[in-house]
Amino acid sequence: MEVSTFLTDSHEVKCCTVLCIISYSLCMLFFLCARTGMNAAVRAVVRVGIYTGAKVYVVYEGYQGLVDGRDHICQATWESVSMMLQLGGTVIGTARCQDFRTKEGRTNAACNLVKLGITNLCVIGGDGSLTGANQFRSEWSELLQILVKAGKITAEEAKQSSHLNIVGMVGSIDNDFCGTDMTIGTDSALHRIIEVVDAITTTAQSHQRAFILEVMGRHCGYLALVTALASGADWVFIPEMPPDDGWEDHLCRRLTDQRSLGYRLNVIIVAEGATDRFGKPITCDMIKNLVTKKLGFDTRATILGHVQRGGTPSAFDRILGSRMGVEAVMALLEATPETPACVVSLSGNQAVRLPLMECVQVVCLHLSNWNTYKLLAHVNPAEVKSNINIGIMNVGAPCAGMNAAVRSAVRTGILQGHHMLVIHDGFEGLAHGHIEPISWAAVGNWTGEGGSNLGTKRTLPRSMIEDISLNVAKFNIHALVVIGGFEAFVGGMDLVTAREKYEELCIPIVVIPATVSNNVPGSDFSIGADTALNTITTTCDRIKQSAAGTKRRVFIIETMGGYCGYLATMAGLAGGADAAYIYEEPFGIHDLEVNVEHLVEKMKTTVKRGLVLRNEKCNPNYTTDFIFNLYSEEGKGVFDCRKNVLGHVQQGGTPSPFDRNFGTKLGSKAILWLTDKLKECYRHGRIFANTPDSACVLGMRKKALVFQSLAELKLNSDFEHRIPKSQWWLKLRPILKILAKYKVSLDISEKTIMESIIKKRGVI
């Protein structure tokens, strides 16, 4: 990535740009900046722009291409943005641009836009790029006057291009832009970092070493902080939270304590911009010298550098870029001359529009991650015990991230003074007494381990209620954490129903959603789904590469999910699928015919490959074999077919950064909630919880972690098909079809209203 300095009249802004453009009569789009995941945004804007009837242009080499014009501004076609999703960086380039720092350079850029009839810009970049684009917009009228006076454009051309609309998308691996939960490129950077941390951990354990890793983050420590959470690091240094005076002694005590507990390694994460309270930089070498001289530990330092910016985009970044690209086009189509420059952002699972300059002015802090890390890593276990026993179990199919949730719950419980018990093999283990206490050290390395270390089964408790109640009493269990999928949800309700007969089950219960299917009512996301989605996406990339080499080949891929089409739909968006069949959207033989005809037409273009995803239970009659045979027969002579059933590979593997972080947060929050609930339910010397709000699902709704009672969620559940009755991701289905070039309508009835960041948060 290239970095340049763009000077305005009042201040200096860091600019990092990559450009792309659309023309829709007076409507044009345009892009800037290079991060992993940007190509998904470019692809989405180009294709949705063409879908709306626009001419779409890309500008090569960022602002420099905008200033130079000519061959740097080229019209894009549908096929020209194929096979981009899996590529890192930006295929349209970025460059340093000294010329754009000058009024003359910006005047030339304006001239190039006017000659092409471009009056709308879509800018992808960080706050410097977006601020620079806003400055360009504020000068627009003045620049037109200069061009008319110099005779470079006519008065009529100036009139037709009298205003310039701007929509921004934020691309920054630092996740340092206020107003959006995640910026394009951040999740991919975390994948690169965690891959390195996992690799280093194995050698560190072998040699009993301490490792210090420096990650990017000059002003924002998000990468360092989430890496510390996701890896269970012993210490983290970030710019926003300088360590207290005497941190050197505290750090050494912390590392010594860890070794005394039997740990064979230490991991310290440092953001490149970390300082002490006096502004003095804290570097890898400084920490290495401290640990080596004071403790005598064999210590190594690693600076990850630009490896964090590269590589294949994660599934999340591809979907984020695609969604932001679509929203950017919609924002430009709805823009008027009075519309202020805005950025399209992510809030929970919703796309939102925010005033550009307000976002630039507000400081971005990630306090929830910091508080969770401090709770789990920087506080000594409570000396006063509470005499409360909390049981933790896994239920249903295993998935990546379960162990992170267990680790977090165990350690948070110990910090609260509770006795933590683990239950092996789900409800069967609870019925058979497979219960034992667990210590702080026992879960030390669980964050990065896949599967379920506790063991898990799908068996529901209803046939074993009496045995379960006896063991709850025998082991004096006062509260229960059930981590799992739909079986955990139904099992929790079985326990609540049994409270009428078995008083021992009148204890607080919290269900934490953990399943690759993402089908637990009460949560937009489940632990494990992100890891499975990345596994499917990576497989689709390899399959598409194979199809690109052989030409005229269509692959039919079967994904997991039960009746829930989340994985098929989101993998379709991330992998650039031509179709994704799911239960929630019924289809028939006519739909299959349309899909085959679509692929036949596609083979006439330069893109001679196809990818079709099928959810495993989307239709009992239109099986994977049936669809494969149908496509093979109808495509005979035009394309041939192959099929793949991905199977249990989707449940395995090391957890993604999101699943590690998500599991850690849910586990900690569940225990804190149970601690408060136990105080409420303590009556006459014992725990008695029989109200509906004493048994809840802890899930993510939009951007908040919320508790919802099992009784309330029962009304929103389809128990026959094991899915919620309403699912947020179904609204993304039209985007999948539009990006695959189907002629479908895009519902824009729910227009995104621009929100004010300053009014919501205030300037920090």
Automatic annotation (TrEMBL):
Family matches, as SUPFAM superfamilies: Phosphofructokinase
Its GO CC terms are: 6-phosphofructokinase complex; membrane
Q: Which UniProt keywords apply?
A: Allosteric enzyme, ATP-binding, Cytoplasm, Glycolysis, Kinase, Magnesium, Metal-binding, Nucleotide-binding, Transferase
Biological process terms from the Gene Ontology for this record are: canonical glycolysis; fructose 1,6-bisphosphate metabolic process; fructose 6-phosphate metabolic process
Provide the leader sequence positions: none
The residues covered by the Phosphofructokinase domain are 36-331, 389-673
Q: What is this protein called?
A: 6-phosphofructokinase
Task: Give the source lineage, highest ranks first.
Answer: Eukaryota, Metazoa, Chordata, Craniata, Vertebrata
